[in-house]
Write the structure tokens for this entry.
Amino acid sequence: MKTAIFPGSFDPPSLGHLDIIKRASEICDKLYVAIAINTTRYKELFTHEERVSLLKKITKELPNVEVISFSGLIVEFVKENKIAYIVRGLRAFSDFEYEFRMALANRKIGNVETLFLMADAELAYISATLIRELTFFGKRLHDFVPEEIEPFIFERLKASKTLS
Ligand code: ADP
């Protein structure tokens, strides 16, 4: 059985993430969508637990997809759990350099292969950073996130405006 893992921060989960999840789940027998704990260097939109719950919501129709959390080095997690591949999405040249280095490092450290899926042409402009910026300006997000996610983002925005 070929298992793969799609790691990321998913803050928030986007249509770009969901596209990679669907396509990768068709290639492998089992896909773990893995949310990294404690790697955020920015102000979070959703907590770790909230992201787990949102990702579970949007992947509930995909039977071979499981949402999990991980901390530490992905390559160690991969070895401990006998996962065959790391899956990553590639949007633009700007993703390439970082991803190329990570894939080489993961192969060197853990002998783990990384599978890259090219972003869908219609979704390649989407990034979590862009979504967080648009959220702040109160823009509609239906072109960026799955429809189940948008109300949660607006709730979060309302709460943060009430608090500040
Ligand atoms: P982001 O880079 O948007 O902050 P993550 O850090 O959670 O998102 O990224 C996790 C993975 O999802 C990475 O491999 C990234 O390249 C991929 N990804 C993010 N957005 C897209 C998209 N629009 N299309 C394809 N892959 C994407």
